[in-house]
Structures are given as structure tokens and as C-alpha cells.
Amino acid sequence: MKEFYLIISFTFLLISCNEFNTLNKKNISKTKSNINLDKTINLNKGIYYCKKCNSKLYSSTNKLDSNDNNESFYKSIEDNVEYDVDYRASNNKTELKCKNCGIHIGNVWNDGPKESTGNRHCVTKNALLFKSINNSK
């Protein structure tokens, strides 16, 4: 019976560590996204917060229609996201970090909508916490 509890405990530890590693790893976002750049998507109105420090990072009004495992936005809220060029990558990716806590949240690419910023912030879903407008007051 002790072996069973050890296996269960170890499994939960791995799951917790995996989420922690995802938040602290660099290079976790994909280089290209299968997105429709002609439209934004506002199905759920609200704010996306940093999962680590709860800073406001993105608004759902700036969200792009994305078909991958990451969230895509064309700009952040009030410059709460900082840019840092990752020279270790072969294509010199621009890394996105929460300005408050410095955690890696994704990468920015220049294939976003030209009528706005021209940028696409490709942000890992594990780094964000969504709160609807009705619940964030």
C-alpha cells in the first residue's frame, strides 16, 4: 500500500513540477502560429493576468484568432510586458517577459496585423490566468 501512495505522490509532484518548468523555461512558444490575422476574437471579454504575480498583461480586445496551443495578441496592456532579444536562438527571437516579475511568457513576431502594431505576441497559456470582466472587479 505504501508503494501505491508513493506512486500517487510522485505523479502529483511531476505534474506540479511540469507546470513550474513551463512557466520558467525559455523558448516554450512556437515560432509560427496558424492564425487568422484578418480578425480579432472577443468571445470572452476580460483580462489575462500573469499567473505568477497577477499583473495585468493582455486584454481580450487585443486577442487574435489563434489555432494553436498558445494565446496570440497584437499588444499588451499599458506596456506591462517587456521585450528581450534572445540571442541564443538561431533566429534571434524576441522574448516576452512580465515586466513586474520577469517571468518568460512567450515571444513576439512581426507577422501580426499591419493595421495595428504589426506584432503578434505568442504567449503560452500556462503563463496566463484569464479573468472575465464581470469577475475582475
Reconstruct the topology from this structure.
Layout: H1 2-24, E1 35-40, E2 46-50, E3 56-59, E4 63-66, E5 70-73, E6 81-86, E7 93-98, E8 104-109, E9 120-124, E10 128-132
Antiparallel strand pairs: 1-4, 2-3, 2-10, 4-5, 5-9, 6-7, 7-8, 8-9
Structural account:
About 12% of the residues have low confidence. With 137 residues, the protein is α+β, with helices and mostly antiparallel strands. It has 1 helix and 10 strands; from the N terminus they run H-E-E-E-E-E-E-E-E-E-E. Strand 4 and strand 5 form a beta hairpin. It is 17% helix and 37% strand. The chain has one domain: Peptide methionine sulfoxide reductase (Metal Binding Protein, Guanine Nucleotide Exchange Factor, Chain A, Beta Complex). A 7-stranded antiparallel β-sheet has the order 1-4-5-9-8-7-6, with no helix packed on it. A 3-stranded antiparallel β-sheet has the order 3-2-10, with no helix packed on it.
Please name the defining characteristics of this protein.
10 strands, 7-stranded antiparallel β-sheet, about 15% helix, about 140 residues, 3-stranded antiparallel β-sheet, alpha+beta, Metal Binding Protein, Guanine Nucleotide Exchange Factor, Chain A
> What is the percentage of strand-forming residues?
35-45%
Number of helices: 1
Estimate the mean pLDDT confidence.
75
**What is the chain-wise order of helices and strands?**
HEEEEEEEEEE
From the alpha-carbon coordinates, what is the Rg to the nearest angstrom? 17 Å
Shape: globular
Major beta sheet, strand line-up: 1-4-5-9-8-7-6
CATH-assigned fold name: Metal Binding Protein, Guanine Nucleotide Exchange Factor, Chain A
Number of strands: 10
In CATH, the homologous superfamily goes by the name Peptide methionine sulfoxide reductase
Structural class: alpha+beta
The top-level CATH class is: Mainly Beta
CATH architecture: Beta Complex
Q: How can the largest sheet be summarized?
A: 7 strands, antiparallel
Number of domains: 1
Helical residues, percent: 10-25%
Distance between the termini: 47 Å
